[in-house]
Design brief:
Distance between the termini: 27 Å
Helix content: 25-40%
Strand order of the largest sheet: 8-7-16-17-18-15-19
CATH architecture of one domain: 3-Layer(bba) Sandwich
Pathway: Carotenoid biosynthesis
Strand content: 15-25%
Structural class: alpha/beta
CATH class of one domain: Alpha Beta
Largest sheet: 7 strands, mixed
Family: Belongs to the carotenoid/retinoid oxidoreductase family.
Radius of gyration: 23 Å
CATH superfamily of one domain: FAD/NAD(P)-binding domain
EC number: 1.14.99.44
Pfam families: Amino_oxidase
Shape: globular
GO molecular function: oxidoreductase activity
């Protein structure tokens, strides 16, 4: 029997909130610790001068994951969030002046491609690519999602390894190839290939270094669609905080966890806070970066050494984010847009191999005012600009680098997206650099997307949600299985909670909690 029957969640990002909600709905006594003064992690909000910006994720995919978390408490997602479908899903701007919209409907996309690249090869290739993507998505759902996975060995039942169906699945994953090479076997037009490459940017990795199985992301997006929660993606965090409070989760905000306490046998027994308090706990879900959890919260213990020996942990990319409050809208922009680099190979080489900012980068733009006019004063725009950069290196001084790189970004948007008067339209301007991201969110070397997905076979695997090294420790977030991106982070929180529940390391305080939309349990906030 555990000395304490409370469960602690370290970190109030989306993964930690998903864990807390799932565990509390199943009847556990949960306390969540967050070092920042807000809950929601990167899903924060910036408001200034009448403008409202989502500071972190802006694209909601796979709302079924979020729906599953609310269903744990008997809630219907439709009652919690107003989700607006976006189609076309994004607009691509290319260096040659062409534009291409991505449609969810395959027939509509094929027609668009026939007009964009006449002759039928582009549309036929896209259909073939989506067929493969659907197969890979199906494999992911059967073997990879919704359970704690840390390596390819965890995916398959050894007794069924030589089953013809299983072998077929392994072959379909193309472990001899990469996502980038697979895309180019279907998309001969380099512009179409560049658009499809950017499905890997949900995981902050280079297409030519990432496994083919990540091509399944395309089907995940086109299948369930792209959605905008009214109020921005911050509304997702707010909805989870409300649910957790209704379920009786205790929030300890502004409290930094310095260490995860373990007993003589290496089992979790609590956490030590930066104010000197030790909080006894029966189990811990860490929503902190998985590598920093081991290097900092378990420092000096055998478990940390075992974790380090298991594999090399490479951070995913970081980024520069610009929040620009504008006094006009740009009619050429959709809600989501990619302003592509002139040469993706050069771009990825700089970011992922040389470790330096790309001289001609791809810019992701979120322009939400047409969808949600409340984000800006009338006629204005709350423009979010994200440019991927390398994760932090020791010689990167972003206070010195930023002014010139800001100029590079603005020039790129003027040249390729036709936003020639952008600088003169700025009324509010704020930024995050890789150093800011590192300091603000306590991630590994400023990585936005946790760990890189590089490696033809093992690139898709992150540390398992059930720690193999510390009994009673579970991992959630973008640096744990199944990886980064809003739906995967939310799923990681559910998996960590479910694994803890299955293991029975803590006793429930009572029966599972089911709430209708008009009822609530107690809320404890300290």
């Amino acid at each position: 029997m555990s000395k304490s029957e409370r469960i602690g969640v370290v970190g109030g990002g989306l993964g930690g909130l998903a864990s807390a909600c799932t565990l509390a709905a199943r009847g556990y006594d949960v306390v969540l610790f967050e070092k920042n003064p807000w809950l929601g992690g990167k899903a924060a909000v910036l408001t200034e001068g009448g403008y409202r910006f989502d500071m972190g994720p802006t694209i909601l995919l796979m709302p079924s994951v979020l729906a599953k978390i609310f269903a744990e408490a008997g809630r219907d997602l439709k009652d919690e969030l107003d989700l607006i479908p976006l189609d076309p899903q994004w607009r691509s701007f290319f260096d040659d002046g062409a534009t291409l919209d991505l449609h969810a409907d395959v027939a509509a996309m094929a027609s668009t491609l026939d007009a964009f690249a006449p002759g039928g090869a582009a549309s036929a290739g896209y259909r073939g690519f989506l067929d493969l993507s659907e197969r890979l998505d199906d494999i992911s759902r059967r073997y990879y999602f919704w359970r704690s996975i840390g390596s390819v060995r965890d995916m398959f039942d050894p007794s069924a390894t030589f089953n013809l169906s299983t072998l077929g699945d392994l072959i379909a994953m193309r472990p001899w190839s990469t996502m980038g090479a697979t895309i180019r076997s279907y998309a001969r037009d380099p512009r179409v290939a560049q658009m499809l490459d950017h499905f890997t940017q949900y995981v902050g990795s280079a297409p030519d270094l990432s496994p083919t199985v990540l091509c399944g992301i395309a089907r995940m997006q086109t299948g369930e669609g792209v959605w905008y929660p009214r109020g921005g993606t911050r509304a997702v965090a707010d909805a989870l905080v409300r649910l957790a409070g209704d379920l009786g989760v205790e929030f300890v905000v502004g409290a930094s966890v310095d260490s995860i306490a373990t007993d003589a046998e290496g089992r979790v027994e609590g956490v030590d806070l930066d104010d000197g308090r030790r909080i006894p706990l029966g189990a811990v879900v860490s929503n902190s970066d998985s590598v920093r959890t081991h290097r900092e919260l378990l420092a000096g213990r055998p478990a940390a050494s075992r974790f380090e020996r298991r594999r090399r942990y490479e951070p995913a990319c970081s980024g520069v984010v610009m929040y620009l409050g504008l006094d006009r809208r740009y009619e050429q922009l959709l809600h989501h847009n990619f302003v592509f680099s002139r040469d993706p190979h050069e771009e990825f080489d700089f970011i992922y191999r040389k470790g330096e900012p790309a001289p001609d980068p791809t810019c992701y733009l979120c322009a939400p005012a047409a969808t949600d006019p409340d984000v800006a004063p009338e006629g204005g725009e709350a423009l979010y600009v994200l440019v991927h950069t390398p994760y932090l290196r020791s010689h990167h001084d972003w206070d010195a680098l930023y002014p010139a790189y800001r100029r590079t970004i603005l020039d790129k948007l003027a040249k390729t997206a036709g936003m020639t008067d952008l600088e003169s339209r700025i009324k509010v301007e704020r930024r995050l650099t890789p150093q800011d991201i590192h300091d603000r969110y306590r991630v590994l070397d400023g990585a936005i997307y946790g760990l890189a997905s590089h490696g033809r076979l093992n690139g898709a695997f992150k540390p398992a949600n059930r720690s193999p090294d510390v009994p009673g420790l579970y991992l959630a977030g973008g640096a744990a299985h199944p990886g980064p991106g809003m739906p995967m982070v939310l799923m990681s929180g559910w998996i960590a909670a479910d694994a803890l529940d299955q293991d029975g390391v803590v006793e429930r305080r009572g029966g599972a909690v089911s709430l209708d939309a008009n009822s609530s349990a107690h809320t404890a906030v300290s």
